Amino acid sequence: MRSIAFADFLIGLGILFVLEGLMFAASPNWMRKAMKSAIATPDNVLRVVGIGSAVAGLVLIWVMRRPV
């Protein structure tokens, strides 16, 4: 039997794939421009945005999963 945490992880990964797929399907040209922009962005800016996004995601998970 899989753990609840692993099932939650797989659900989150599935949602990520769905959202990414929808963005590519709805506006492939915009996604292409976004990827070109990411390539041109300096590494330190990408790191800060990545860390900020990860922290925001962890806070959102913590808020939603904490007992009431």
From TrEMBL:
This is Membrane protein. The keyword Nucleotidyltransferase does not apply. It holds the Pfam family DUF2065. The chain crosses the membrane at residues 6-25, 45-64. InterPro entries: DUF2065. Keywords: Membrane, Transmembrane, Transmembrane helix.
